[in-house]
Amino acid sequence: MPHAPSSVVESTPTARVDEPARVEDAVLSSSLGAPSHDDVLSQLSKILQSASFGGATRTKGFLRYIVEETLSGNGHRLKQYSIATCVLGRDSEFDPEADPVVRLEAGKLRRVLENYYLREGSTDVVEISVPKGSYVPTFRFQSLRSEPAYSPNTTKLQPDATRMLVVTPTGQFESNDCRSITTGLFEQLVVELARYSDVSVDSCDGAVLSAGGRVTPITLGRESNARFVITSGNRQSGTKVRVTVRLHDVQSESIIWTESCDFDVALDSIMELQDKVARRVAADIADYHGVIGRLLSLQSVCAEGEAWSVQNAIQKHRYLARVTNESVYRRARFDLEHGINVAPYNAMMWAALAHTVFAGNILGFSDDADWLSLVDRYAQRSFELDRKCAFGHVVAATLGVYHRDREGVIETCRHIMEDNPHAPSTRLSAGFFRSLAGDWDAGEQMISSALEMITYPPGWAFRTTFLNAYRQKDYNRALYEIKKYPAAEQFTPPLLKAAALGQLGRKDEAQLAIAEVFRICPQFVKLSERYFRYLSCFDPLSDHLKEGLHNGGLSL
User: Fold this and answer.
1) Given 42, 184, 239, 470, which is the most exposed site by the fewest CB atoms within 10 A?
2) What is the pLDDT of residue 159?
């Protein structure tokens, strides 16, 4: 099932945030009343003196500035330009589209604040936070926080495990060409990584790794509280410069991904190639279907006995989308239902739960009363909290397909693309839904371009390439496409395979595939109508599939 990039915890926004905001909207009122100016200033002073903020001078300045401006009634002036020029040392030529410094610093501030309130400030009366999608802080009494309704183990919100440290290559170089090319590549890599809201990015002077080997990427990552560290190597032969990029996992103390790229210093297109390579490296590492996403989702279902966390709950949902079976479904739904009580203001939590409930009722894992209304309510809650919630749009498109709202699905695809059009997972999801809504040519082109960038594509992507071939009665190509969808405990691949085999008159093979469907889902006939509505926006295509299944020996 398709997924667009999404935010594991509320961190760096990927789009420009320049919307006016009144201070009355920023200060949340309640039955206890809102904290007074003096209350907020006292809390601000306490936070800035805390160990959590330590030597984070820029982060302190950022927080002080936005709090004082908001209290002065100037919240509507808190835009990227004003923050960059007043706090972060940028000049009047600052361009927020080219320089992500404000977004990076805002993400860092949110993480440090979260860490502070989980530890030193856990009993503070006043809470200061900076919601995603805005630079205007909110002030409230901590007693307003919802208490958890139950606990799978012990309830603890853990720090963001996807924090990434990019080590700027200012250390050892074989030549000036190596220095220029590697430095330019890594500068652009920081920009590209900042587009992905799933990771929070910081950079570090690479000279620290050149001090006689006393500092390693692993020790540097630990000191910086980063789960992953990116480093580089370089060498030159003639006019050719080879740059090697390495991704270190601090937890396992190992290199988990590496790639080399070659540049010819005699060419004039160095900058364009740097941009292209940086975009590809960022996708391999930070995309929804990238190496970090795959690693964390697998760890989330293998980490038995660990304390509940926002990230693990959402990563379980991601694993469910990749490996769909009832056991993972029940664990993911349990954690997500707990999550909307513990973290009720996390938009992704609501969207992931909406998608999980939908999948469970389509695939026969659950049979909730009025389940479509439940899915819609959870999705709308995600939009209420964050109108740009990328995964909320994925759920909206899924519902649109089910309700045969083809125009609505196409419009939702435009919203999906707004999240991060550079990310292959974004193009994959948008192309997937455009195809199911009937724009087969544009959809398949988007899917093909996305698959060129994804090393380990999700199986559901090939559902649409199968359906496109099948609707054109190219059944052999349809079989070829569905072979790319490995899923031992998902009945979709054998079901579609059986339909194509039935159309080809290969009844014995079709019956074997049908038997596999019933092994995985004995009650398939009962839920078949619901399932075929989910497959595409077109009843004639569903009837065409049923015809193939009938030819293979299954009448529905």
Assistant:
1) 239
2) 38
Q: Is 237 left (phi over 0), alpha (psi -120 to 50) or beta?
A: beta
Cα gap 386→132, rounded to integer Å = 8
Gap between the Cα atoms of 346 and 339, Å rounded: 9
Residue 136: CB partners within 8 Å, gap ≥ 6?
21, 23, 25, 26, 66, 70, 75, 78, 130
- Are residues 428 and 38 in contact, defined by beta-carbon separation less than 8 angstroms? no
Residues whose CB is less than 8 angstroms from the CB of residue 176 and which lie 6 or more positions away in sequence, other chains included: none
What pLDDT does residue 150 have? 34
Q: Contact at 8 Å (CB) between 75 and 69?
A: yes
Q: State how far the Cα of 449 lies from the Cα of 33, in Å rounded to an integer.
A: 53
C-alpha Rg value of the chain to the nearest Å: 25
| Dist. CA 297–CA 138, nearest whole Å | 32
Does pLDDT of 546 surpass 80?
yes
| Domain made up of 334-552: CATH architecture | Alpha Horseshoe (1.25)
pLDDT in tens, 505-534: 999 999 999 999 999 999 999 999 999 999
- Specify the pLDDT at position 17: 35
Average per-residue pLDDT in the chain?
85
- Alpha-carbon distances of 500 from 162, 177, 385, 545, 549, rounded to whole Å: 42, 56, 43, 8, 8
Give me the mean pLDDT over the 302-314 stretch.
78
Task: Give me the helix-helix angle, 461-471 and 440-451, nearest 10°.
Answer: 140
Residue 171's pLDDT band (boundaries 50, 70, 90)? low
pLDDT for residue 208: 65
Q: Which of 228, 212, 294 is nearest to 220 (CA)?
A: 228
Separation between Cα atoms, residue 80 and residue 87, nearest integer Å:
10
Helices (H) then strands (E): counts for the chain:
23, 7
| DSSP secondary structure letter of residue 157 | P
For residue 452, give the H/E element and its range: none
| Residues paired with residue 235 on neighbouring β-strands, in sequence order | 242
**DSSP assignment letter at 306:** P
Q: Supply φ then ψ for residue 139, to 5 degrees.
A: -130, 130
β-partners of residue 234 are 243
Question: Using an 8 Å Cβ cutoff, are 288 and 268 in contact?
Answer: no
Residue 185 has phi, psi (to 5 degrees) of -60, -45
**373-423, pLDDT tens digit by residue?**
999 999 999 999 999 899 999 999 999 999 999 999 999 999 999 888 889
Which listed CATH number (3.30.1300.10, 3.30.160.180, 3.10.150.10, 3.40.50.2300) goes with 163-286?
A: 3.30.160.180
pLDDT-derived band of residue 33, with 50, 70 and 90 as boundaries?
low
| Domain ranges within the chain, ordered by starting residue | 23-144, 163-286, 334-552
pLDDT tens digit string along 465-487?
A: 999 999 999 999 999 999 999 88
Angle between helices 492-503 and 475-482 (to 10 degrees): 160
